[in-house]
Amino acid sequence: MGGQVSASNSFSRLHCRNASEDWMSALCPRLWDVPLHHLSIPGEGGPDTDDDCLNKNPHFRTRKSGCLRLLNRPLPCITQPLPTGAGRHGAAGRGVRYWTCDRPHAGGSEKNLHFVHMVYTTALVRGDTLTEISEWLERHPREVVILACRNFEGLSEDLHEYLVACIKNIFGDMLCPRGEVPTLRQLWSRGQQVIVSYEDESSLRRHHELWPGVPYWWGNRVKTEALIRYLETMKSCGRPGGLFVAGINLTENLQYVLAHPSESLEKMTLPNLPRLSAWVREQCPGPGSRCTNIIAGDFIGADGFVSDVIALNQKLLWC
Fold first, then answer.
1. Which residues pair with 250 in a beta bridge?
2. Spatial contact of 46 and 299, defined as CB atoms under 8 Å apart
3. pTM value?
4. Residue from 113, 183, 197 nearest 147 by CA
5. Tens digits of residue pLDDT in 279-307
């Protein structure tokens, strides 16, 4: 099966054309039978951030961490959202296959749900955010995405049911029901393209289409070397049994914000992406205790992060 396409040919094909849009189907066929939690998958966003690049509407940037909420009254110019402009290419088109759908909340009317992030939009759940993902997947039937719905503070049971109903109505048979982590070949054979993790136990009990929350290694560190030390410590403790995320997200704390009032998370992150990308290139996917799976970060379109994460799958062919 795998002998028909060599590793070098497969990855040459992946990198010499704009294959990030369809990188899963461009993998060497030997990797089609590797479970998703043993592949290397690029992700975007984290516990406190989400770029939501699929949304083409104007979006806003704001800091939402606890320490920054303390600054809201004395320093609203720091903590309040500022318009930033739109027109980014879709994250899925760049090769991202994991992202968070953070803090859904009701706005205006009870059934007018929005996703809210540290980097957030006013995209309606039933509108741009989920529908555009579904439409993109229809055009790319052999690509698979993982959506992490989390941070449900204050969401009522009725709104949980409404949100899950939206997810099921929009994605339909594309949803992969909870069970053993599948391989690409298994997903393709069933026409399934979406895994939804959902951090609400009662909803999980009611809906077999939902998966438990995907663990996220979030370092909560300002400095790059401190973040890398945290990630290496987590690796030494052993990887989770299923899908999980290693986050290369730098995080502002109160001390940093007070010392750099005119800076942003973007200005802090971009100069450090080369060092973080160097760490990414050292990683290896697979079942081993120190192996990585999903690697996610912020502002990853500004560097070769996505192609670096995808290229790690080549190491599976050397085993």
1. 221
2. no
3. 0.79
4. 197
5. 999 999 999 999 999 999 988 876 689 99
